[in-house]
User: Fold these one by one.
Assistant:
Number 1:
Amino acid sequence: MHYKDELAEVLARETGMEKNIFSDLLEIPPQADMGDLALPCFRLAKELKKAPNQIAVELKGKIAGKLTWLRRAEVVGGYLNIYVEPAQYAETILQKSFAQGATPGFGTEGLEKTVLVEYSSPNIAKPFHVGHAFSTLVGEAIANLYEYRGYCVKRLNHLGDYGTQFGKLIAAWRHWGSEEALADDPITELNRVYVKFYRELEDKPELEDEGRLYFKRLEEKAPEEYELWKLFRDLSLKAFDKIYNRLNIKFDSMLGESFYSDKIPAVVDRLREKGLLVESEGAQVVNLDDYGLNPCLILKSDGATIYASRDIAAVYYRDETWDFYRNIYVVGAPQKNHFQQVFAVLKEADFPKADQCIHVAFGTVRFADGIFSTRQGNVILLNDLLAESVAKTKAIIQNNNPEMPEAEVEKIAESVGVGAVRYTFLRNGRERDIVFSWDDMLDFEGDSAPYLQYTYARCSSIMRLAAANGVWPLDPTKINHEHLAGEEEQSIIKLMDAFEDSVLEALDTHEPSIMLRNISQLARAFNRFYNSRSILHAEDKEVMKARLILTESTRTYLKAGLKIAGIDALERM
Ligand code: ARG
C-alpha cells in the first residue's frame, strides 16, 4: 500500500516510537469497508499500558491534519481504520505506473548481483515428462522475477547426461537398437531399449557387468563409447531444443553433469584436506550427523563418481565463473534430501556461500484417470500435453469465432493452449501437487490463462477503438481523477498498487503464484468495472478519458504480469 510508509513515519514521529513497530503492525483489511489500511493496537497495549481502543483513539487524534491523502480515520474496537482520499489515490498510483512505462513495479535492487537459476535439467535419452515441465515453467518465471528487479540472471540447464545408466544404455543400444528408429524419434527409441534392458536383466544378470564396463570405458573416453554417448546427447538436445523454442526459453548454459566429471578429483582433494572424507564400506563419504542427515556419498567403492559429487563440483565451478549472489535449484521435492546433503557438505568444507544455495522444490503432477492417454507407459510427455491443450483450444476458438481465418486461429490457439498449460503449473503454491483438469485449464471464465489473456485482449480492443475514434492517445496527467473514485475503479487501483509487493513477495518466496494472484484479481476487478460502466460511451468526455486511462493501465499491468509468467499477451482473441 503506497501510503503505508508515510503513515508509519507520521505515527512514529507523533508518538516518538520506532517506525518499524508501525510498519509491522499496519495491515490491509480484508474488506474495503473496513478501510484501506488498518492499525491493530492490541500488541501496543502492554507497552503503553493502555487499552487497545484507547490507544486507537489517541493515535487518531495525533495524525489528524497531518496527512494530505487521509479522508478519514475511524476507531473500531482496538483498530484504527484509515480511509484514503480516492481521487488522490488514483492519481498517485496511475501517475506512478505511467512513469514506469511497460514495467510497472520493476526495481533495481538486484543490479550488480548475479543470480543463477538452474531449472529444467532433463535427462538425455529420456522423455521430457511433466515433472521437467514443472521445473522448466516455474524456473523460467522465477528467473523472470529476478530480472524484473534488476538482477543479472543466468539461466542454467544442468543436463542429466552422465552416470552409470549411460553404460547400460550403450549396452542396450548395441543389443537392440535400430538406426532407423533412432533417426526417426531418438528419445522414444533410446527409452525403448533402456526399458528393455531392465526387463531382460532378470534373465540375463550378465547385462549388468556389460553396462558397468561400458560406463568405465565412457569415463576413460574410449572412442566408440564416447562417440555413441555423444550421438545420444546431441540427438536428445535437438529434441529438447524444439520444446524450449516452443516455450521461448533460452539458457545461458547447458553444461550437464558430464562436464563436472573431471572436476571431481579436485573436490575430493578439498574434502580430504579438510579432513571430511571418511571410508564407509569401501566408499568415501562425508558424515553429516550434525545436520541430522545421512552421510553424503562422494566416491563409490569402485572409484566411480556420483550425482552428489557432480553437484558439489558444479557449485565451485559456478561460483568461480559467475561469482553468484544466489544459486537456485528448481528441482522436485523428492530431491530435498539430496540438496540438503550437498549444501551441508559445502558448509562443512567452509564454502562461504553455502547459505546462498537454495533448493526451490515443487510437487507432483497428477491426472485424473483416463483424462490423458500416454504413449510411453505412464509417463506423460510435455509435448503431448501441449499438443492436446492447443488442439482443444483451437476447437473452442473455432466454435466462438466461426469466421476467423485459419492462420489466425492457429496462432491464437498456440499462445492460449501453451499459456493454459503454463498457468496451470504456476497458479498454485509450487509445493502443492497439481491435478490436471482440461475444464479448469481452458475455462475462459475461470482462474485460467485464457481468462487473463482474454481480459488483456479486451483492454486492447477498447484502446484500439478509442484510437480509431480519435480519443486516444491522451495525456494521463490531464484527467479528472474524481471520476475514478468509485468502488469499481478503486478496487482496480488497489490491485495495481499491490502489484509491486506481489512481485517482491513472489521473488522472496520463489512463489510466482503470488504475483499471478494479483493479476488474476486485477483481471476480475477490471471485468467487474467493464460490466458496470460504459467506457467509450461514457456519459461525458471527461469520464471517458479517465476510464480509458484506467483501461490502458490495466492493460500494462496484465501484460507485465503475463510476461513474467511467460504467457503471451494477445492483442486480439
Ligand atoms: N536431471 C535430474 C532429474 O531429472 C534433475 C537435476 C537437478 N539438478 C541438480 N543440480 N541436481 O531428476
Number 2:
Amino acid sequence: MDKKKIPTFTSRLPDVGTTIFTVMSALASEKKAINLGQGFPDFSCDRQLLEMVNEAMHQDQNQYPPMAGVSELRQEIAHKIKSIYRYQYDPVDEITVTAGGTQGIFTAVMCCVSPGDEVIVIEPAYDSYIPAIQMAQGVPIRVALEVKRDALGKVESYQIPWKKIEGAITEKTRLIMINSPHNPTGMIWKKEDLNHLADIVHGTEILVLSDEVYEHMVYDQKVHESVSSHPELVERSFVISSFGKTYHVTGWKVGYVAAPKSMTSEFRKVHQFNVFTVNTPVQYGLSNYLKEQKHYLGLSNFYEKKRNFFQLGLRKTRFQLLPSEGTYFQCADYTGLNIPEAKLNESDFCCWLTSEIGVAAIPLSAFYTKGQESGVIRFCFAKQEKTLEEAITRLYKL
Ligand code: GLN
C-alpha cells in the first residue's frame, strides 16, 4: 500500500510559533484561570453601538462596502483626527478601514518594505512587527528601549534609545516602527520624542509606521502625542488605530490606517488583495455611533480608574509595579516573590501562575525576538472591578 505523503515546504516564518496571546488565552480557558493575559475587555460595549450595527444589518447594509471602507466612516475618522490632532486627512485618499490594527500594520509593512530593506524596531515590541518585516523579506534591526532604574534597581521610566536609533540608520533603512502608548510597557512618547524622530528622518527616504491603537488611553493628565499632530512626521507616516480597543469590541476586528495620498495608494494596492474590504454593517454602525458619541474622550478617565484600582491591589502583593502611563496594561516584576517559582523564566512563570494560581499574564520575553528575560510579566486591567479584585486575592497569596 502506498504511504500517504504530506508535501513538505519551506516555512516563510521558520522561527515563529503560535502567538503568545492565543497560547495564554487557551491555557487560561483550559485551567479556568482569570485571563489578564491577552488584551481584551471582559465587559460589553455601549448597547447603542450594538443597536446601530444591528440596524445597519436590518437595513440591508450587508454587501461589499467600497474597498477603502464606508465613505461615511472615513469622514467621521478624518473629523475625529482633525478635532483631536488638528490635522486634516482627506477621507477619500488618505484613510483606509482595515480588519483591525494587526492587518493595518502587516499591510503597511508589505507595501513599503522591499527585500533587503532595513526596518528599525524598538524592543520590546508587539509580536507581529518582526514577522511582518520577515514576510516582506526586509531585515529587522532591533534596538532596545532604555530602562531607567533607581538606586534599588527599581524601574523608574523608559526612554527612547535615540543614540542607538541614530546608530542603526543606514542607507538601507526604509521604515521605523514606533508605538505609543506602548504595548507592553505602557510608556508614552513625549513631544520631544516626536521632534527627535523628525530630526533623524529629515531629508531621508525613511518612512514611519506609528502604531497608536491605544491612543485614547493615557493617564495622569498626560496627552497622547500622535504622529498626525506632527507637521513633518505626518507627511511620511502610516498611523494605525483600532476601533476594537477604543469601543471594547476587539472581536470585531476593525481599525484604520491614515497616511498621505501617495502612501495610501500603495497601501490599498496590497490591502485590496489581502482582505479586499471590511465588514459593512459594523462600519455603518461605527460611523453612526461616532456621529453621536464622543465616547473616546472619556476613555482615559475610565481606564485610569481601573489602572488605579488594580495598582492599589497589586501594591498589597509582593509584585513590584512598573510605571503604566497608557494602554490597558500593567507590568510587574515577580523576582521579589518569596517562592521558588520566582526563579522561573517569564514564560514558565506565566504558565505556572495560570495553572496553579489561576491568573493568566503575558511574559515580557514574548515581545523580544531573542527572548530577553527580566523577570517581568504583563497584566491586562481592562476588566470589571470584581475580576480584578478576584485576581488580586489570588495574587496576594504569593
Ligand atoms: N494586542 C493584544 C495584546 O497585546 C492582543 C491582540 C492579539 O491577540 N492579536 O494583548
